[in-house]
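HUMAN:
Just now I want nothing more than another pair of eyes on a protein record. I would be glad if you read both lines and explained how they fit together. I have put the entry right below:
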Amino acid sequence: MGNDNSLIRWRNKQRLAPVALLSAVLAAGVLALAVEAEETANKVEPGRSLSFDRKKGNCLSCHMIPGGTLAGNTAPPLVQMRARFPERGVLREQIWDARGRNPQTIMPPFGSHGILNPEEVDAIVDFLYTL
């Protein structure tokens, strides 16, 4: 009788081992996703702040940006930016000086006029690529 109980306990442990392993793997995956999400948020926050800052990027004066308030409608909404600008350098150049692609643009040349420095433009691109 004692051996039967030992055998049952052993079988139950054997059945639970894959469940425990799967639970550990899923927990590790969830933790990794949470860490990645936090790192992404930390990386894009400076660009978001610059984009919404009325004294710096001021993107909201012309563009609708998810999460922004008092958005303008002079320029296209800033959504699906990776799809619209698959080449990061093209988006960066658009922000730096849009006159390169359209000499008649009304978009300010943020970089070439010194409104934003290269690091600030890169931060805005990082943010826009999350939209």
Summary: Residues 2-128 form a domain with the Cytochrome Bc1 Complex; Chain D, domain 2 fold (CATH 1.10.760.10). Residues 46 and 123 are 6 Å apart (CA to CA). The chain has one domain: 2-128.
